[in-house]
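User: Let's play a game. I give you a shape written as tokens, and you guess the letters that built it. Ready? Here's round one.
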């Protein structure tokens, strides 16, 4: 303890606070959680896209700025595709039709397959000559890489919450 202070005096702001990480909690709103999740995913998407640009010759993005816009656009399009897939899956699960249960996986595959083609075309329309994501297999690789990084971030976040 420094001279002239007592145990009950307020802590000096210049001194680091003692942390009790076992009991430290914070509360955030749902909007704050969504914002921080999207910010983390978007930053990860920018990194993934730029790494793919660096190492896959058929994927070309003109500038870092364009890669950020592309990451935002891809994140939005992938979210739409995933939401559509989830809605169709919920619709199929809610029905007792054997036909729907058999055709369900086919519908899911078509949605996921067609959505990649739509994403390629929309990126071409929006960014024209500034972005070339390669072909169908490259867009599948991009989607898989983006979702893998998203799941890895979620896993680390959950793991940190338990340790």
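Assistant: Ready! My guess for every position:
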């Amino acid at each position: 303890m420094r001279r002239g202070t007592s145990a009950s005096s307020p802590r000096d702001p210049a001194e680091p606070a003692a942390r009790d990480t076992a009991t430290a909690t914070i509360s955030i709103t749902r909007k704050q959680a969504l914002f921080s999740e999207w910010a983390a995913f978007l930053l990860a998407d920018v990194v993934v896209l730029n790494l793919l640009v660096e190492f896959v010759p058929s994927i070309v993005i003109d500038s870092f700025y364009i890669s950020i816009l592309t990451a935002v656009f891809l994140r939005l399009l992938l979210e739409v595709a995933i939401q559509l897939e989830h809605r169709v899956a919920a619709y199929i699960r809610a029905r007792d039709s054997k036909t729907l249960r058999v055709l369900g996986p086919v519908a899911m595959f078509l949605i996921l397959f067609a959505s990649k083609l739509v994403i390629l075309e929309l990126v071409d329309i929006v960014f024209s000559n500034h972005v070339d994501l390669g072909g169908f297999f490259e867009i599948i690789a991009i989607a898989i890489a983006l979702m893998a990084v998203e799941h890895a971030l979620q896993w680390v976040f959950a793991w940190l919450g338990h340790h």
